[in-house]
Amino acid sequence: MKALVADAINEKGIENLKEVCDVVVDTSITPEELLETIGEYDAILIRSRTKLPAEVIEKADNLKIIARAGVGVDNVDVNAATKKGIMVVNAPESTSITVAEHTMGLILSTIRKIAIADKSTKAGKWEKKAFMGMELRNKTLGVIGMGRIGSQVVNRCKAFEMDAIAYDPYLPPEVAKNMGVELYEDIEDVLTRADIITIHVPLTPETEHSISTEQFKMMKDTALIFNCARGGVIDEDALYEALVNGEILGAGLDVYEKEPATNNKLFELDNIVCTPHIAASTKEAQRDAAIIVANEVITLFKGGMPKNIINMPRMNNSEFEETNDYLELCEKLGSFITQATSSPINKLEITYKGEINKLPSKDLFTRTILQGILNPVTETAVNAVNATTVAKARGISITEAVSDDSEGYDTLIKVAAKTKEGQMSAEGTYLHEAKIIKVNGYWVDVKPEGNMFIAKYKDIPGSIGAIGTKFGEENINIGIMQVGRDSTGGEAIMILTLDERPSKEAVKKIKDLDNVSDATCLKL
Ligand code: NAD
Known about the structure:
Elements: E1 2-5, H1 11-18, E2 22-25, H2 31-37, E3 43-46, H3 54-58, E4 65-68, H4 78-83, E5 87-89, H5 96-111, H6 114-122, E6 140-144, H7 148-159, E7 163-167, H8 173-178, E8 182-184, H9 187-193, E9 196-199, H10 213-218, E10 224-227, H11 236-244, E11 250-253, E12 272-274, H12 283-301, H13 317-340, E13 345-354, H14 362-374, H15 387-393, E14 397-403, E15 411-419, E16 422-430, E17 434-439, E18 442-446, E19 451-458, H16 463-473, E20 478-485, E21 491-498, H17 504-511, E22 516-523
Parallel strand pairs: 1-2, 1-3, 3-4, 4-5, 6-7, 6-9, 7-8, 9-10, 10-11, 11-12, 13-14
Antiparallel strand pairs: 13-15, 15-16, 16-17, 17-18, 19-21, 19-22, 20-21
Helix pairs in contact: 1-12, 5-7, 13-14, 14-15
The structure holds nicotinamide-adenine-dinucleotide.
Pathway: Amino-acid biosynthesis; L-serine biosynthesis; L-serine from 3-phospho-D-glycerate: step 1/3
EC number: 1.1.1.95
Protein name: D-3-phosphoglycerate dehydrogenase
């Protein structure tokens, strides 16, 4: 086996690797040289300098694994690698401590006015009175997103004798309890109570601008907010207003809506501390990333399965051909059900009906459904390999059943999800394309694609019109409308495809309509 180390990664990782294979270290290799030589290697270890576009991957005939010593894989054409059956692994856990520590740095720097006091002191001023600070002890930390990084921030804040509360709708309450964190179901409860608010969620349609004018207004005027996650979660215009108008006391940012952030109006303000997206940049994180990915390569070379695979595992071609269409359906069903249920799923029942039961790969289908369920709600890149592990860690129990009765279709896949608020189910089939044909037992016929909207309402005259009118008022065109009901005047369900995503306010207005009991937007 032969591995190429194409970027400067920590020596310890390279040493480990040398014990199991030939290692070529060429950290100044050019794209042209890489194109010529990539065919010789079984593994390539990179950071962000080396780019692996489709044309390089196309020539990588012996390559089994691409190991990115870090988190982001923007420099790798992951789809091309997946198609060629090459694993792409990364080291997501390598930066958790580092980012948590940086968050602490921003918190302390802001609450004790260290950054601004540093500037003043070095300018020869001695402004002791100008820099009155506050203690962290007995303050309440409010964490939005209790994943790898959020939970490490909690650990550190506990050492400062702080109380911790959190909002993370996908975290099982027992996990939060074990961490000594009070979990709230409504973000508003955290935002109104916390003294220090820290954001650790992925950037998704749900989290984008989830901290905006309305949220700043509900915070204490002594609150401080920090974002070391992704720019765009906080609405920067609203943050600027909140800081200028004294709606909150201060803020700390490592990430921005537009990066590099060289001309941001927030930089004019004294009550914000800013760093240039460096929360993950420490020697230790780089060392750990190198060791983690070198160990992944070693595991694979020794016949094991790496744990941080972010794409599909290698499958033989005939297996892939047979299952491919159903994999698309499975992912869509998972993504549909997770977005259509507004609280965390704790139980999943999957039923395979009809012809699909002749295929050997039901485990892969279940994993792909989980992939669809988990990917919209976690930063972890969930794939067929890690889906079950991630689901278990989130407390989702899974049962599978088979049935001969496919109700007139060749194949049906039913996914029923239980949350503490109730149950939701979707059934789909593949007829030249993935189709959802039943929702909560009501027959519909809809292609799960693009912007969708689902509402439960009372089946009485005027209900459908009232919803349609709201979209008309928002100037949003409805592409397809499907409705189903249990009985005349009973509960009914509506599924729409929309030409664009409605605003949160627009969805709320529909939810507030008299005969509507639930309304949700989905992106498939
Ligand atoms: P993670 O996947 O371990 O945790 C994310 C958590 O957010 C999960 O527990 C998930 O359930 C929760 N979540 C998802 N949607 C939510 C919502 N709408 N409301 C509340 N919670 C929600 O990810 P992580 O490794 O902890 O990373 C957290 C963030 O930090 C990510 O955005 C990541 O990209 C970012 N990050 C930034 C840097 C940096 O350099 N600044 C470095 C590493 C990671």
